[in-house]
Amino acid sequence: MSDSLTPAPAGTPKPIRRTSQLPASEVALAALATTVAGVWQTSELPDLLWLRKEDLAAQAADFARHRAAAEAASDQRTPQARRLQALDKELARGLSFVKNYLAEEHEENEGRAYYPEFGLVKEGGKYTLPAARAERLTALSKLLRALKTHGFDQKKYGTAFWQPLTQEYARLVQESTATAGERSRQVSAKGQGELQLRKALGALIHHLKAHYPDTFAAQLRAFGFQKESY
Question: Residues 128, 132, 133, 137: is their CA dihedral positive or negative?
């Protein structure tokens, strides 16, 4: 029988399960760090050898700023992504008409010979615009030129249909790429800042316990380390 099923001898003390004195949530961590840094600055508790009071205040402010910036960049990217998806559907709808124009102008198989000129590639067993955003933009430019070359530019799904869609698509791809890059930078900075902040707050907890061995629980609460609030 497994040892795990063997009951512990009578009188054996139960293992102590310690809960973290720091919140898991980034929002709560930022709020706690800001509070603790403010209290420490007006407290008699001295600096640590490797961490000054103003350093913790700066770390807390930086973390809160990067967390908010990363969240804002993520929120901004969501409507851009939704609009790009909607444009993809519009492009697919218009493309079916362009294929019909080629089929009417040439035999179906002969019409397919012009697909590369219109920026079409074979993906997933069918001819379409490239799925990747950058390649799709290049393909749209080719399609606009081909419409004019083949005399389709004045048709209903000619230049008047494709030009504004292409312009909006290019703008959104550029904005989405910039937003994604900004979000990556902010997330990276936030991650590094969180590690530093948790290290600093953990050290400060021990600092309080060392200076107030008999009343450290009350001191922790006074500094803002109130686990029930996060």
Answer: negative
